[in-house]
């Protein structure tokens, strides 16, 4: 009995010591955040909720801070509850400090950890030695010799999309759905050599349904303090739906991986290369680091899930908003058409060499990426103290690189609400800080697939504008909504009118 009392006493003492330590840590951290709040511009704080009482949706974060950006502040402080202080960087001078660093992704409450059950610890989320190793192993998948054969896939996928647009007979249609199916089709064929008739199956394909729904659920969860507590969230209806969908996407990717494993076991690498192009999945399954170690099954699945999502959904957003910009600015559309016609005047199929021949199309795409940032924001967490705007930032501070606010900062971009592709001429780019335009992030953790995405965008947009004149529905002006990617609140409705062949 005495022995039991001793164990009980020691246990209670340990628990009490831990609670005292945690309370001291919270108080110390709270004081640090208060000091930080005195150094940067911010909206009025609630003593416990911080800025959370002003934020009902993620969109509010962008809206309520616009006046502070316009006033010229380079960084803005806001506070999502008692344990999530965030510094928003909205100026190239502050953006480059964090993007040039090796600061890891923010995985605290409401951070990238919400994506972990879905995407796992792949390139998007992983940090440190693991990220360095996997990034090095996967860089080979985006060498130009690997990317070059993909142009054929871009063309064949776009041909299916063109036929679907033609069948609309000039009626207004919601474009994000068919474009998302096309980019998923492209990713599956290019990266995984997977033929699944994705575009023919349409919106009812369960993977497409899951991705769209999980994005919605994640956004809803990120602005609810109670739902950030995972054990509780798993008990909710939305939580159960989200984790069931995670199981499905994992099953989908695992089937693709296992099928390729069997193929590689039965054929030599030379036979595989001869039969088709070497793709991302081949490299994942055969890559070995300097110690001769391969990626584990879980690591392979995490990278597949990451690239399936990032490789199609962000590109779909970019292409869809490019189509809207073509429709919204008809004079610019004609300039794009003229540029495309000078390259595609003989064959409607785009060749690898054609990608570098366009002159105005790349300016247009970059301006669309600025105006309608496909990825609204990314986040980092300071692992060591650093200085931003002459202020020492404490360890563990979360820093948001807000692309929307950076790309629409009037102190960087004259007339930021006007659509001007000329902002991206060589002279204009040379006169501007390169960190003023970061649609693919920048620095050591920039998007590994940005060349793949740009090539795909050039192909799809050039072939569509070469075949059709794009018009928008004046009764349904789309409202950009910054979710995980930028979508249109009530859909994006356009019509595609076949061009006069004699033109």
TrEMBL record:
InterPro entries: Cyt_P450 (IPR001128), Cyt_P450_CS (IPR017972), Cyt_P450_E_grp-I (IPR002401), Cyt_P450_sf (IPR036396), Cytochrome_P450_Monoox (IPR050196)
Entries under PROSITE patterns matching the protein: CYTOCHROME_P450
MF terms in GO: heme binding; iron ion binding; monooxygenase activity; oxidoreductase activity, acting on paired donors, with incorporation or reduction of molecular oxygen
Required cofactor names: heme
Binding site for heme: 447
Regions that span the bilayer: 6-30
Top-level taxonomic group: Eukaryota
UniProt entry keywords in alphabetical sequence: Heme, Iron, Membrane, Metal-binding, Monooxygenase, Oxidoreductase, Transmembrane, Transmembrane helix
The family this protein is said to belong to: Belongs to the cytochrome P450 family.
Descriptive protein name: Cytochrome P450
Species name: Patella caerulea
């Amino acid at each position: 009995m005495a022995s039991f009392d001793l164990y009980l006493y020691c246990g209670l003492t340990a628990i009490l010591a831990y609670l005292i330590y945690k309370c001291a840590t919270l108080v110390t951290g709270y004081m640090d955040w208060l000091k930080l709040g005195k150094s940067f511009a911010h909206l009025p704080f609630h003593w416990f909720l911080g800025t959370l009482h002003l934020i009902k949706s993620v969109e509010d974060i962008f809206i309520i801070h616009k006046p502070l950006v316009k006033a010229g502040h380079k960084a803005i402080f806001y506070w999502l509850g008692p344990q999530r202080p965030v510094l928003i960087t909205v100026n190239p001078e502050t953006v480059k400090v964090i993007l040039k660093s090796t600061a890891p992704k923010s995985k605290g409450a409401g951070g990238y950890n919400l994506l972990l059950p879905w995407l796992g610890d792949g390139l998007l989320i992983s940090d440190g030695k693991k990220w360095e190793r996997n990034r090095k192993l996967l860089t080979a998948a985006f060498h130009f010799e690997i990317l070059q054969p993909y142009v054929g896939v871009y063309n064949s996928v776009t041909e299916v999309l063109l036929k679907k647009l033609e069948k609309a007979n000039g009626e207004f249609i919601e474009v994000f759905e068919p474009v998302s199916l096309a980019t998923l089709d492209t990713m599956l064929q290019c990266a995984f050599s997977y033929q699944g008739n994705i575009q023919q199956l349409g919106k009812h394909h369960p993977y497409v349904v899951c991705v769209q729904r999980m994005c919605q659920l994640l956004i809803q969860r990120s602005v609810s303090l109670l739902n950030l507590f995972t054990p509780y969230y798993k008990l909710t209806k939305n939580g159960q739906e989200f984790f069931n969908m995670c199981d499905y996407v994992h099953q989908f990717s695992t089937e693709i991986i296992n099928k390729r494993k069997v193929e590689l076991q039965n054929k030599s690498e030379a036979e595989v290369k001869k039969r088709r192009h070497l793709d991302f999945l081949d490299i994942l399954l055969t890559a070995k680091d300097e110690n001769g170690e391969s990626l584990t099954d879980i690591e392979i699945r995490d990278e597949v899930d990451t690239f399936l999502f990032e490789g199609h959904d962000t590109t779909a957003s970019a292409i869809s908003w490019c189509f809207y910009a073509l429709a919204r600015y008809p004079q610019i559309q004609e300039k794009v058409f003229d540029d495309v016609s000078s390259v595609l005047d003989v064959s409607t199929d785009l060749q690898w060499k054609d990608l570098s021949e366009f002159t105005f199309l790349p300016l247009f795409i970059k301006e669309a990426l600025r105006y309608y940032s496909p990825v609204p924001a990314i986040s980092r967490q300071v692992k060591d103290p650093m200085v931003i705007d002459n202020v020492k930032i404490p360890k563990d501070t979360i820093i948001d690189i807000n692309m929307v606010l950076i790309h629409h900062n009037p102190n960087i971009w004259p007339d930021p609400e006007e659509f001007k592709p000329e902002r991206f001429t060589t002279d204009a780019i040379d006169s501007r800080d390169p960190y003023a335009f970061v649609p693919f992030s920048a620095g050591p953790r920039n998007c590994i697939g940005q060349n793949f995405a740009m090539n795909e965008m050039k192909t799809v947009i050039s072939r569509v504008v070469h075949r059709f004149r794009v018009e928008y529905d004046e009764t349904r002006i789309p409202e950009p909504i910054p979710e995980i990617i930028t979508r249109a609140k009530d859909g994006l409705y356009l019509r595609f009118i076949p061009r006069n062949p004699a033109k």
